[in-house]
Amino acid sequence: MHGADAAARRRAGVIGALVALVVLLALVSLGIGAVRLSPLTVVEALVGGGSDVAEVIVREIRLPRTILAIAIGGILGLSGAALQGLLRNPLASPSLFGAPQSAAFGAVLIIALGLADVRSYALPVAAIVAAFASVFALLAIAGRNAGLLILILAGLAISALAGAATALVMNLSKNAFIVLEIAFWLLGSLEDRSFRHVALALPFILVGGIILLSQRSAFRALSLGEEAAQSLGIDVDRLRLLVISGVALGVGGAVAVSGTIGFIGLVAPHLVRPLIGHDPSRLLVPSALAGSSLLLASDIAVRIIPSTSDIKVGVLTSIIGVPFFLYLIVRERRALSGGVA
User: What is the pLDDT averaged over residues 180-200?
Assistant: First the structure.
């Protein structure tokens, strides 16, 4: 009993620290840019007590970008934790299974066909449908009890197919301006985003997040195995469909306004797992907060790194995420070798 109380207090402390970190990074994000603003100036601008120039910079230019970083990082971290809980595999994440790449293909396709522009609500709908199809295809191809190798190979195949289809759409497009816009958009960025983009993505992200969080008790039962979960009254097929839907809604809405931002969903759960433990139901909220912190920090970094052109945040997260992914593979290999031995 005392152990459970201590674990609950530790989790509450970790969540409190992560919330404070998100708030701190948000203030830094609102103050960083071509015009540097102090935290006090940022707060004054937010409450309407600052100068007109500061209010325009903070409220109209930087606030939408910061809100999107928090929301998109949060849903990516939450989706990664949910997929890891569903598949009981520490290497599961939306990006490894082709969800962002497929969502990007869905969005690119309707842009190239002239059916919608980058501010149309048709964009997240197309991205969500494609993301749903990719995760559903992965589970159908790999099977319920697929091992690590099968999951990675199936995810790589889906990612490669989505990437090739996106490239084909760009090659066949006759509008060079659209192709250039798509190419930069696919790199992943939060630059020049407005409240129109927030309104475009946030409803889908919120609904996806609510669906995933509503299944947290089922994840705990599923950690005992599918048969044990079913004996406890968990409808595993329904759970799988809900998780796929939540991931597709959240990731599709995120990709529709930011492009492809990879590895946040993989890294975030692993950062908080040593502090929280391995119970997947307890990892969801901390993983979402860690994802928000990671994307906020990455977006701040791309603005302060000296460069002749703007660095895309999706490029930075991939540079950080790939070595981390390789480290996890090596760790899993060693664990399997130890288990065999």
Answer: 84
